[in-house]
Automatic annotation (TrEMBL):
Cofactor (UniProt): pyridoxal 5'-phosphate
KW Lyase (keyword) present: no
Gene3D superfamilies per UniProt: Aspartate Aminotransferase, domain 1, Type I PLP-dependent aspartate aminotransferase-like (Major domain)
PANTHER family listed in its UniProt record: AMINOTRANSFERASE, KYNURENINE_ALPHA-AMINOADIPATE AMINOTRANSFERASE, MITOCHONDRIAL
Annotated GO MF terms: pyridoxal phosphate binding; transaminase activity
Keywords: Aminotransferase, Pyridoxal phosphate, Transferase
Stored Pfam families: Aminotran_1_2 (PF00155)
Zinc keyword on record: no
Protein name: PLP-dependent aminotransferase family protein
GO biological process: one example: alpha-amino acid metabolic process
Residue intervals of the Aminotransferase class I/classII large domain: 32-382
């Protein structure tokens, strides 16, 4: 971008990176969308939200459309407090900020805590939009490997100890998606959750717990890091995007009152009164636990369909993690650059997101992310079959024989 304007130092720093959204694909007509981390269309409660909006306007007339919005905005905040309490996190209203989606929460936190000298620790791979946000504020990162049990806390501990010994800057924050991680689908074990909190205390950093998929566990919901936090080290980030509708842009941050007050200061009045009021109207009309069960049953069935299709059709050189919830399956194809292979997959009628977009180092990458959330089960199986044919044509012969 040509800089003809007196941009701030931090804005100029952001221009060193690629523009956001480079991972978004233009899909050919009829392509099976295994790239889209979106809710299944039939699971988005469009009729329920329409009914909620009509009821809201009939009862309150102009109020939801005014700057201050409906009294139901407070009701939405109380609903979030109640859900958090049911998961072991008691927060006062002063310790909770409703945001325009989880990404606004991440950006606000980065805005008040980071500068161009700050170090951010994060999972590798990690959520690409969070990575884009943090790269707007700093160039200094600590990338922690992820395995089938989530973030590798022992490697993280070793990295911290070595860095401290060598006089390196310690991370100011750690960003993590401990439950049904995007993109790997892995869930951090209870032992590692405890260890992560110990490291935060020992090395004096804050934890950003992104819980976007935390309500979508297939069999259980692991204990929140925030529920285990005795030292106010955790800022909990939540969202309605994956459990109701992403276009409503309802998220939140729960944390110490002092930090929430500063986040509010910079958020100012950038609310969406109508969206928040409509969401509150919708939530008061449903049994949320029943709603979640509908979602988790559907996504578990589709996850099973994807895993079984991978097992049936993929060459031996391909491996993956089996998710316990969420939207995604993380796939490794030994010896194949998945970014180079993408055009062939699109020509065959199936999409995915190349793994390079989830790493700081976006060079050759053998991983890709599949989503089972958007397409129906039949399309998922057909999509995996198509993808497997493309993969088989690209896997090096020696790799396929050795695996």
């Amino acid at each position: 971008m040509k800089q003809d304007y007196p941009f701030s130092k931090n804005i100029s720093l952001a221009f060193k990176n690629d523009p956001p959204g480079q991972w978004l694909l233009t899909l050919p007509e009829g392509c099976i969308r295994l790239s889209s981390g979106y809710p299944e269309p039939l699971l988005v409660p469009a009729v329920g939200l329409k009914t909620a909006a009509v009821r809201l306007l009939e009862e309150e007339q102009d109020l939801p459309l005014q700057y201050m919005g409906s009294p139901r905005i407070l009701q939405l905040k109380e609903f979030i407090q109640k859900r958090l309490a049911e998961r072991g996190v008691e927060v006062a209203k002063e310790e909770l900020l409703v945001t325009s989606g989880a990404c606004q929460g991440i950006d606000l936190i980065a805005r008040i805590l980071l500068d161009d000298q700050a170090v951010v620790a994060l999972e590798s791979p990690t959520y690409m939009e969070a990575l884009e946000v943090f790269q707007n504020y700093t160039e200094h990162f600590m990338a922690i490997p992820v395995d089938e049990q989530g973030l590798d806390t022992e490697q993280f501990a070793e990295m911290l100890e070595n860095g401290k010994r060598d006089g390196l800057k310690m991370p100011r924050i750690l960003y993590t998606i401990p439950t049904s991680q995007n993109p790997t689908g892995t869930t951090l074990t209870a032992k590692r959750r405890k260890r992560l909190l110990e490291l935060a205390e020992e090395f004096d950093f804050l934890i950003l717990e992104d819980d976007a998929y935390g309500e979508l566990g297939f069999t259980q919901r692991p204990r929140l890091l925030k529920a285990m936090d005795d030292n106010n080290r955790v800022l909990h980030i939540g969202s309605m995007s994956k459990v109701v509708a992403p276009g409503m842009r309802i998220g939140w941050v729960a944390g110490p009152e002092k930090l929430i007050k500063v986040l509010s200061w910079f958020k100012k009045d950038l609310n969406h009164p109508f969206a928040q009021s409509t969401m509150a109207s919708f939530l008061e009309s449903i049994d949320f636990d029943d709603h979640l069960k509908l979602l988790t049953d559907a996504y578990q069935a589709k996850s099973t369909a994807m895993i079984e299709a991978l097992e049936q059709f993929m060459p031996p050189a391909v491996t993956w993690y089996v998710p316990e919830g969420g939207y995604f399956v993380w796939v490794k194809i030994s010896g194949v650059d998945t970014a180079e292979m993408l055009s062939q997959a699109l020509d065959a009628g199936v999409s995915y997101v190349p793994g390079k977009h989830f790493f700081l180092d976006q060079e050759r990458c053998e991983y890709l992310r599949l989503s089972f959330s958007y397409a129906d089960a039949e399309a998922i199986v057909r999509g995996i079959q198509k993808l497997a044919e493309v993969v088989a044509a690209n896997v090096p012969e020696k790799t396929g024989q050795e695996s």
